[in-house]
Amino acid sequence: MRYCKSPGSFKSRIKTAVHLLIPCIVFGTAISNADDTLSHLRVGEREWDTFPESPDGSTFSHSFHVDSKSLPKSVSLRQIDVKQAWTVTLNDKPLGRLIRNENDMIIVMDIPPELLHDGTNQLKVGQTGRAMADDIYIGELKFHDSTRSEYLSQYNVPVRVLDRMTDQATPCRLTILNEHGTLMSVGNTSTDTTAVRPGVVYTSNGEVNLQLPMGRYQIIAGRGMEWSIDHQWITVSDRTSSPLTLSIKREVDTEGFISCDTHVHTYTHSRHGDATLDERLITIAGEGIELPIATDHNLHIDYAPRVHELGIGRFFTPVIGNEVTTKIGHFNIFPVPVNSPLPDHTLGNWGDIVKSIRTTTGATIIILNHARDVHSGVTPFAPGRHNSLTGRSLQNGLFMPNAMELINSGATQTNYLQLYRDWFGLLNRGLEVTGIGCSDSHDVARHFIGQSRTYIRVDDDTPGNIDTVAAVQALANGHANLSYGLFTTMQVNKKFGAGDLATGEDKFVATIRVQGPSWVTARQVDLYVNGILTHTFPIRKGQRGGTKWTGQVKLDGLKHDAFLVAIARGDGVASLHWPTAKPYQPTSSHFEPYTIGSTGAIKVDVDGDGLFSSAHDYAQSLSTTHSTPAQLTASLTEFDQIVSSHVAEILDLTGVDLSGENLQQLLKKAPAEVRRGFFLYQRSKIDALNDSRQ
Questions:
Q1: Which of 58, 84, 530, 572 could form a disulfide with 134 if both were Cys (CB 3.0 to 4.6 A apart)?
Q2: Numbered ranges of CATH 2.60.40.10 in the chain
Q3: Measuring CA to CA, which residue among 369, 363, 326 is closest to residue 346?
Q4: How far apart are CA 143 and CA 685, in angstroms?
Q5: Contact status, residue 319 vs residue 294, Cβ threshold 8 Å
Q6: Strand partners for 549
């Protein structure tokens, strides 16, 4: 269910409001000088087309009067869509910074008395340092006659969250919204059982005493995309108290799979973001990640000792990894033995980097991270560096990682299919590459852990004692599905799943199942064969929890060996209990939020030889068998367009002019699939040329 900003729209689902207060001293009366307006600020170009064409300005300024009878001790303000660094000053002296978080939230800052003047004072908000493009909303200032801590800690609200099936307290994420639907800061600070940010509290034991000022709030409990949510409205206004109990239930059946986040950071070790080591471990439990991979930059970090000290080892099994961060790409590697040497991250080509990784750590999994993002001026899969269509590296030689990120919830893509197309190209080249979903989380609540994740097909009976050797090998073998709000599985002939070779059969039928929680809406599921979209199915009951769609596809039209991938797509989530992010490095100012659930690749042995032949394998075989372009193009009638693209590449690399009259005359007589395959390859060459000129 989507949560809108008007509490009135929830009347049908609101439980009886409770008045929750533990007796204490009342602070925080708002004093004059408030500013109820919300200003739109812009630095640089317009960031998103949802913003007005003209902003109110590039800075915010509010003047207010102070005398001995109205001395403010803190100020609260509302911020929305803050991506870059914005500084708050009082009388030109630093007061604090806005929180780098695109969500809608109320934050509170202390006002040191020495920054105040008798008479008129001025509070300003603006960017500092190098100007970075950013559109934000800021305003709704309220000054308080109490400190930040006093204002936010007026009342204690005991909250307990239960697993509905066991009636036992469970780790979870609590979201606290004010009556306008804005994340509300709380008076709590992080402890060894909680991780706290404005409007968000994770608890590793399912219990917390929320500290809140007077007001009306919606409290939402959840535990990642496998679980339902529960919510209640409360009014904090008097001194009667009653514990608040919420209950959630598992809605998505992931039996036989473990949830893995392969891209996890801490501020403690990576020194950016905001999640300390303890906070990270609490958030892992709160989002239901069972196999977290520690991947701080160029470091080997072992979570296990601290997990044991915090007493949360029954919820997950930590694995030592490393984000090998180089100038030509980032690579997540694991498992890494304790105290193993660090790979050389200064090397200048992928072959040497992979060799260093293998030599120093023996890591089984090497993942190419965020291949379409720019880091150190390099985009690994830019058209001038990599041919997405055929999977041929143009600069680094053979693609050597055995996995790549397809969905990174901390660095989403404008077009969610782009990285899938890159992956399809690698698979069509015959490379064994596992698709990965991950969070790349550095934060507690901004781009949070486990929003995108990988489900590995392996024994899931004991999350706190996972057989990591078996799990890692299963991942290397491609026995994995990707989730970003939806969970999609597929079997061929009811026995072959992701990473398997379906063989020994005369006919093939694919069975697809799409699951998701009740608060994610699924819209359609697509079936790709060798990266070509062949079937699309609308999902008409996409709002229900659990199974949202299931169906079968007869694979009678397969001409030759091929791989299958099913991708379910749904709406983005607007609710602040699990908000889907805008792209990290957008390619357009327009963006349609989405959720995704996709399978790993299932290979189908159509020709019955007991082996899998890729599109590139077929193209090479045809090029060897047929000595002339005429013979070669004529032979393509029994193959799909992807094989034709690979043949076009082979001809091109052997010096054949693809634009020459002779070949063009042959293509005019060829089937449409053949012509399209050649066209797509020639377009990829143009894209590479244009990229190299930039």
A1: 84
A2: 7-24+154-248
A3: 326
A4: 60
A5: yes
A6: 514
Q: Evaluate whether 164 touches 247 at the Cβ level (below 8 Å).
A: yes
Comparing C-alpha atoms, which of 37, 122, 29 is closest to residue 72?
Answer: 29
Q: Is 214 exposed, middle or buried (0-12, 13-18, 19+ CB in 10 A)?
A: middle
Helices (H), 266-408: 267-270, 277-286, 304-310, 350-361
| DSSP H helices in 431-498 | 468-476
pLDDT tens-digit map of 324-333: 999 999 999 9
Smallest CA-to-CA distance from 337 within 386, 391, 305, 301 is with: 301
Question: CA 324, CA 347: separation in Å to the nearest integer?
Answer: 11
Residue 269: count of CB within 10 angstroms of its CB:
17
H or E element, residue 417: helix 417-428
CA-CA distances (angstroms) from residue 534 to 418, 553, 604, 640? 17, 10, 15, 12
**Residue 66, φ and ψ in degrees, nearest 5:** -125, 135
Judge contact between 454 and 462, C-beta under 8 A: no
pLDDT tier, 5 (very low <50, low <70, confident <90, very high otherwise): very low
CA–CA–CA angle 641, 642, 645 (5° rounding):
90
List CB contacts of 623: < 8 A, sequence separation 6 or more: 632, 647, 650, 651
Of 554, 528, 537, 553, the residue nearest 640 (C-alpha): 528
- Give the ranges where 287-332 is alpha helix by DSSP (H): 304-310
User: Topology of 31-149 in CATH?
Assistant: Jelly Rolls (2.60.120)
Kindly state the DSSP code that residue 165 receives in the 8-state scheme.
Answer: T
pLDDT digits (tens, 9 = 90+) for 100-154: 999 999 999 999 999 999 999 999 999 988 899 999 999 999 999 999 999 999 9
**What fold, for 7-24+154-248?**
Immunoglobulin-like (2.60.40)
CA atoms of 97 and 458, how far apart (whole Å): 45
CA dist., res. 33 & res. 62, Å (int): 9
| Burial class of residue 53, CB neighbours in 10 A (0-12, 13-18, 19+) | exposed
Q: Is 55 exposed, middle or buried (0-12, 13-18, 19+ CB in 10 A)?
A: middle
Whether 185 and 213 have beta carbons less than 8 Å apart is answered as no
Share of the chain above pLDDT 70, in %: 94
Q: How many CB atoms lie under 10 A from the CB of residue 637?
A: 12
678: which 2 tokens? 């050649």
**Cα gap 102→6, rounded to integer Å:** 20
CA atoms of 254 and 242, how far apart (whole Å): 36
Cβ contact 298:330 at 8 Å? no
Over residues 611-643, the pLDDT tens digits come to 999 999 999 999 999 988 999 999 999 999 999
N- to C-terminal Cα distance for the chain? 45
> What is the amino acid identity at position 50?
T
Among positive and negative, which fits the CA dihedral 601, 606, 607, 610?
Answer: positive
Question: Torsion angle of alpha carbons 200, 202, 203, 204, nearest 10°?
Answer: 180
What are the counts of helices (DSSP H) followed by strands (DSSP E) for the chain?
A: 12, 40
In the chain, which residues fall in CATH 2.60.120? 31-149
Please state, as a whole number, how many other Cβ atoms lie within 10 Å of the Cβ of residue 662. 11
CA-CA-CA-CA dihedral for 310, 316, 322, 327, to nearest 10: -110
Count other Cβ atoms within 10 Å, centred on residue 280.
29
Q: Domain 257-604, what fold?
A: TIM Barrel (3.20.20)
